Amino acid sequence: MFVSYLILTLLHVQTAMLARPGGESIGCDDYLGSDKVLDKCGVCGGDNTGCQVVSGVFKHALTSLGYHRVVEIPQGATKINITEMHKSNNYLALRSRSGRSIINGNWAIDRPGKYEGGGTMFTYKRPNEISSTAGESFLAEGPTNEILDVYMIHQQPNPGVHYEYIIMGTNAISPQVPPQRRPGEPLNGQLEAEGRSQEDGEEERAEEKEDLRGEAREIFPSEAAQTFPVRHPDRFSPHRPDNSVPPALQPPRRSRDHNWKQLGTTACSTTCGKGSQYPIFRCVHRNTHEEVPESYCDPNMKPTPEEEPCNLFSCPAFWDIGEWSECSKTCGLGMQHRQVLCRQVYANRSLTVQPYRCQHLEKPETTSTCQLKICSEWQIRTDWTSCSVPCGVGQRSRDVKCVSNLGDVVADEECNVKLRPGDMENCDLGPCAKSWFLAEWSERCSAECGAGVRTRSVVCMTNHVSSLPLEGCGNNRPAEATPCDNGPCAGKVEWYSGSWSQCSIECGSGTQQREVICVRKDADTFEVLDPYECAFLERPPSQQSCHLKPCGAKWFSTEWSMCSKSCQGGFRVREVRCLADDMTLSNLCDPQLKPEERESCNPQDCVPEIDENCQDKYYNCNVVVQARLCVYNYYKTACCASCTRVAARHTGFLGSR
């Protein structure tokens, strides 16, 4: 009894020394009072020289689509960071040397999240914000227990992939991370890290392969799978710390009447898909097998619970549903998509499998309609106004407004600029001549002396040229004759005209010549005088037009109208009509000779005002223009230059309609 009491007392004293508040600290070597800490290499008591940082940038120009290897992550790597240098349509992928995909294998893109592989947990990030330029990344603390390969699924030019990790140096001490202590175990007890044999690993892989037979094989670039020997952790060398309990005070050996016995196992960690469980050891009486307090058995003899596989059958497959994408339209009815994959969990890993394994479940929808808000629309508020000119080519306008679904007039940016109805157009009211057209009075009086008349031509010009008094000219036809008097016929000085020569052409309008002299006329004689004697009289023409016969109809045209635009290409028009010799409409003109009724004008580019404060703040503003986001003030400011250019093009397009 005394010996047992002494042993219990010593145990209580030792426990109190270890657990007392404010007592000495425990170092990374698991000894009380030790000041050793882990350095950046993970070496207990190291000086940061036992490892090296490996980093670089993969910037190879790739030509073919598909998987391309970027970098190899060696066994034992820590602080792993694989990051795209810019956002792209490429994807990063991760695979083990054994051929098992970890992230983005078999041409299936996984969702961002955490994925276990290579003995560590990888965090997969894929920024989804429009304004973000960050690329994809893999992050892991490590260390890895096998060689891993990083791939790029190449779809567009490689923006560059930065990689960085830490590995142990050749002269480095292997990290000494103490194993997890079990309840009741001495703090300074030296445990050996029991490495699993290679045969155990092969057996487990065989079980996993058998249980997931028929699984969809994951596609990567062809490369022979390599098997690497299992690296066992270094064993701790036994030694005793300076502050350990002296041998004389160690508790005596427990009674041989009691021993450790397995009494069942822990619950399996999973209900399916290969979980793990551990045996439960209890202290029992050797003969009666009754359970007694653990203090009756030697703690150093207690077996170490070994992990045992359990529930090896596969879990039922399930549909893994991704997040909905952004709506394809900012207003009105659009579409959104999501990824739906058939997955199955085995050995704490989620694997993508063939869709038929999920046929017992209804497959969720991969597309859906969406509507962020009701779109505003263009409304024509008024009819066309009257033409701006009473005749010829002018312009007319109407009121077009952008109206919200509540009926309020909003800014034009709220509506689709490409669908805006025109609010201004050209109008042609025909030729402007709608009145009497008068020729000059004839130069000679009908009588050489005494009373006579002078004549002129009078024509009414309307939409249809005619010499009749049509509506528009009125009935007030101007006079076509006026009286004239050349004075008394006796001794009168006058111009005398000879006979006209033959017409200069055979048809149409030509000219004729004649002699004109100044004479004094008496009763029966003529006296030729110097021309200055008749200077006070209007001299008859010595040349006139002549018309022997019609030559056929001809094309007549008006003057060109003003150009519809001052720059960037407009047009102008004129009226062209076929008129016969009598100035009436005709259809006998040669169509091949018809002058153009419309032609381009002012083709020079409009010179926009350059605003130095209007710049693009993001590299992908062309995406904003393509997505028609320039109607929002935020994108109009963030992508000012691109939005201003497209607005100028739209203005030119509307003006040319």
Automatic annotation (TrEMBL):
Segment forming the signal sequence: 1-18
Start and end residues of each PLAC domain: 610-647
Gene Ontology terms describing biological process: extracellular matrix organization; proteolysis
Entry superkingdom: Eukaryota
Biased composition (Basic and acidic residues): 206-220, 231-242
Stretches the record annotates as Disordered: 174-260
Keyword terms: Extracellular matrix, Repeat, Secreted, Signal
Main location: secreted
Pfam families cross-referenced by the UniProt entry: ADAMTS_spacer1, PLAC, TSP1_ADAMTS
InterPro entries: ADAMTS_ADAMTS-like, ADAMTS_spacer1, PLAC, TSP1_rpt, TSP1_rpt_sf
Molecular-function GO terms, alphabetical: metalloendopeptidase activity
Name under which the protein is recorded: Thrombospondin type-1 domain-containing protein 4 isoform X1
Lineage: Eukaryota, Metazoa, Chordata, Craniata, Vertebrata
